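Hi, does anyone understand the following?
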Amino acid sequence: MRRPVDHSAMAVSGYTVPWYAPAGAPIALHVSISEPVRDVRVARLDTPTPRVMDWAVKTVGERPGRRDFHQGSFLRVSAAEIAKAAGIEGVSFEVYLTRNDGLRVLLETGSLRLGLRDGLLTVEHGGRQFRIDETLPANTWLTVGMSSNEGGTALRIRSDDALSPLDFYRQFDLPWKDLSGDLLFGASASNDIRSLNAKFSSIALQTENGPVAWTFPALLPTAALASSGASEVLLLEAVNQPAFCMTSRRWDGSSFEPRLVPSHYDAVHCHDDDMGPLQWPASHSLDIPSEAEAGVYAFDVEYDGGSERIVFFISSASRRSALLFLVPTATYLAYADEFLPAHLYEWLCEDRGHRFAIDNNLKSLYDYHSDLSGVSISSYKKPKATLRDDYNYPLCGCPHNLPVDLHFLRFCHSNGIAFDLITDHDLHERGLAGLQGYQAVITGSHPEYMSVEMEHALRTFAAQAGSIAYLGGNGFAGKVAFKDDLMELRRSPLEAGRTWDGPIAEQSLSITNEPGGHLRASGRGEFSLTGVAISLMGFEGARPFTRTPESHLRAAEWLFDGVTNETFGAGGIVLGGAAGYEVDATDPHLGTSPDTIIIARATGFPDGFVHDATRWYEGGASERATRRCAEMTLRPLASGGLIFSASSVAWCGALPGAGDMNDVGRITLNLLTHLAAAKSRPDPLRQQQKDGSQPAATQGSTA
């Protein structure tokens, strides 16, 4: 369904293509705007104060204006494809209805429409409407067939529900006509009716030359689907990014693995609020100068009355520093345009980005579709209205994600800490090669989501003497998959009510067919890498850390050089402290290595902080009470590297501003200067080129 962008909350919205690029590459701006554009400039955001760049931004294409969203996914066989088939005598399909109110369409072609009105079956043909007092049941598979029969048109619908069986048949005194126009499943050509919330499978046409059928693959397709059967090969399009790898009528519970039983996963789930990659025309372009420094940038779009910044990233193409900052773009994309409905969440502050998402019915990967299934796939080719340097998260009333990471990067600039930069998307594409030659990788405040390829690259990097400075909380947790501009996330019951839980049978990712959910469930992730994982979450006051006796041992004392206070981190821009929002702790039962040293602990969290529901305490409530904590850790590695875990989303927010210093800043500076000055590590890839050997740590693959 087409709708114009509602700019009530934000006069400008947009995205860049690509979202991240190296110096020397082109990048285009795609915007919708309700006001005339006065100027478009590029600003660098990660410096102590945002800096306008003297880069030439070119105007391209048509003048920017208000654009449209096309929301709702459906299936289509175009009229041109239909014309290839000889003598179509019938059409059939399987459908699993979910939640549909008002008027919806199951099947439409030319003047024929099979639909629903508040659950009641409707038939229209050539302007005639037929009332049918039959309610189609939801949440059960239906087999639908319409065909030519004795000079008329026959409709038959049967259900798979043995307890409430349905076997509807009706003959209409309507001559069957060859199908004309687009053949649409779940939508109307008029584009003014909400699309159908339903799963589809086993679509087929009966032709004079035999059946023409389509089987939906478990793997997300990259193009239209070709039919099988008769000599005519027809193409079917999945429009606006419905979800693939869905259980079908053939799924019997015997396996949750689409790679073993792909025929059980040959369904596609369409939603009336799906939105695939947008195709807005570009309004401006930039050729990133070849000498540009890696960092966080934005197109600053100025209009009468204000401006908005559309963020993009310039990544490092070659190594210039010992330290590499990993921008958590997977987390940014998962959170982008979160809906935060008022009846579920108390807002502690206003944010125009969330208002924009609500006004335009945008959804993040934390949200539900209108039929209460989870939103599982997203594109960076869409507005990310909450991805701003001035963003405040309504649930905690303070900065979150990008502005907190910018606070850290600005701290680095102010204190002479040099770094290169890549994004999560870069790391997924480059793998270990993107990390080679660096002394250490530094994370942002909330590196929650990772692909298997990303996690494997980081793990191998650490095994080859690299270090990881994990400066956040609840990191290395959720498994995602990438494909071009798309990112997919299938949640599991381990989410424990914080957001949507997907059916166990539908946790496999359509991009890779790997099991989704937590990396931990695949023998990877937080505990086995960093030694910590989320322990508490809350939106009230953050807490300071206090050093442990182990922090005074030789292995850790260097980290606290110049720190005179045993307790530190009593202030910050995230909930007023260094340990807050989401914090981590160790758990040997879940995989914390015995070589992990707890160097500081935060306790005394308000009652509003809730325990992570995936943890079980043998000692019951009394032991559980002692584990209301955040634990900062240091893990020396056999390879010679180390892993530092700040164990708090709020840690970077507790760093001082430009010109100031505090204990959190001293600890962070000690860590980064130590890592940057570490003895240069051997480069296994270069060694391999020299002697023809393959390093043991890279032999084989765990992907």
